[in-house]
Design goal:
Layout lengths: L2 H10 L7 E3 L4 E4 L4 E6 L5 E6 L2 E6 L5 E6 L9 E2 L5 E6 L3 E6 L5 E5 L11 E3 L2 E5 L5 E5 L5 E4 L12 E2 L3 E6 L3 E6 L5 E6 L7 E3 L4 E10 L2 E10 L5 E7 L8 E2 L5 E7 L4 E8 L5 E9 L4 E4 L4 E7 L2 E7 L5 E10 L11 E3 L4 E5 L4 E6 L2
Parallel strand pairs: 1-30
Antiparallel strand pairs: 2-33, 3-4, 4-5, 5-6, 7-8, 8-9, 9-10, 11-12, 12-13, 13-14, 15-16, 16-17, 17-18, 19-20, 20-21, 21-22, 23-24, 24-25, 25-26, 27-28, 28-29, 29-30, 31-32, 32-33
Length: 368
């Protein structure tokens, strides 16, 4: 049995094997209706998330509430963050968008009449804030003032996934079976290619490439295809295929390696984490056994894989060759429910981690 399987079996049996560290929770906060993933303030001192139609800011070390900011409508989106972590942006079901200073909750601006919103977190690219709208389009706003810069046509995308963006382009994968690149400055379509996908695009190679997962089918049944696409032209660069299950978007790992998780199994989920280099060759391929779909998170310098067994969250560090650092294997117990579908969020400078469980409760801990 692989080491990760032994880890989780040992956890459930309450037997701790050498090299496995029980990481205590720093805090737990219950916010009804919490959605999406949390974000950190610039210095990591605050963890911000939405729930109970409020933006919550709690201490990242003890969970004490620093401030709560009510939404203008009856429901708020997950928060989107500026790259430096100084500002967060939210949409509301009353067709408004607001910008908030993360450190103290000061509301900088509110923009109205932006069409019905989706609950995806807004996306920041330079001075432009992109929000997806419930009519199948997108709107670009100036992130410092809230001024509307452009709207796309209604129904252009159908239900879209989250936005991936570079300094000049944004990319949306749509259930209308397409991947579309638009100008971040004008909202005009630059290129559009047919793709059968329900997953978010991933920008890599410093903005030069887009990686997209899609589902197809042939005589042997359904299969998943990962494509690397030229971000400037929409031309396909390479494709790779698996007949294993793949219900997770690719992730950008440390040192720019693209991680693609695939898996098979039912009660015990065997996942293969494959790291792809820019030229399409395999950097590493490692297998892990968990009892739920694993999640993957990376900082600039380190790769992490997370898996769960019921309410237990297990974490392991993976090096650049795909090998486990056994002495950096740990677990934490989330007392109110199973882990959520969102990967934990890590503040690299402080080693703080925040995650949400399936009931909406938020947790904080510090990586060992």
């Amino acid at each position: 049995m692989p080491f990760s399987a032994m880890l989780l079996v040992a956890i459930m049996a309450a037997a701790v094997v050498s090299g496995q560290a029980l990481v205590p929770l720093l805090w737990q906060v219950k916010a009804a209706g919490a959605i999406g993933a949390p974000v950190f303030s610039a210095d990591g001192a605050l963890t911000l998330f939405t729930g109970s139609n409020q933006l919550w800011a709690v201490s990242s070390t003890n969970g004490s509430v620093v401030y709560q900011l009510p939404g203008t409508g009856s429901s708020l989106s997950a928060p989107g963050s500026s790259r430096d972590g100084r500002y967060v942006y939210l949409t509301s079901n009353d067709a408004s968008v607001m910008a908030v200073r993360a450190s103290d909750g000061f509301q900088i601006w509110t923009s109205w009449n932006i069409m019905p919103m989706t609950w995806d977190a807004p996306t920041v690219s330079g001075d432009v804030l992109v929000v997806l709208t419930g009519d199948g389009g997108a709107t670009g706003l100036h992130r410092h003032t809230g001024a509307v810069l452009w709207h796309t046509k209604k129904g252009l995308f159908g239900p879209a996934t989250t936005v991936a963006a570079t300094a000049s382009r944004m990319f949306l994968a749509s259930r209308k079976a397409s991947l579309t690149a638009l100008s971040i400055r004008t909202g005009q379509i630059v290129w559009r290619i047919p793709l059968q996908t329900l997953f978010s695009p991933l920008v890599g190679d410093g903005g030069a490439s887009v990686f997209q997962l899609q589902f197809l089918s042939d005589g042997d049944g359904p299969y998943a295809n990962l494509s690397k696409i030229n971000a400037a032209t929409g031309a396909f660069i390479w494709n790779t295929t698996t007949y294993d299950y793949s219900f997770a978007s690719p992730a950008l790992g440390a040192q720019g390696v693209v991680i693609w998780p695939t898996w098979y199994g039912r009660e015990l989920v065997t996942t293969t984490m494959t790291g792809w280099l820019s030229n399409g060759s395999v950097a590493f391929s490692s297998s892990f056994d968990f009892t739920s779909t694993p999640k993957y998170t990376a900082t600039h310098s380190q790769n992490y894989v997370f898996g769960s067994y019921g309410s237990v969250l297990g974490g392991q560090v993976v090096n650049q060759t795909g090998e486990l650092y056994f002495n950096q294997t740990w677990y934490a117990t989330l007392p109110t429910g199973a882990t959520s579908d969102h990967a934990p969020v890590i503040h690299e400078a402080t080693g703080l981690l925040s995650t949400r469980d399936a009931t909406g409760a938020m947790y904080g801990l510090r990586l060992p």
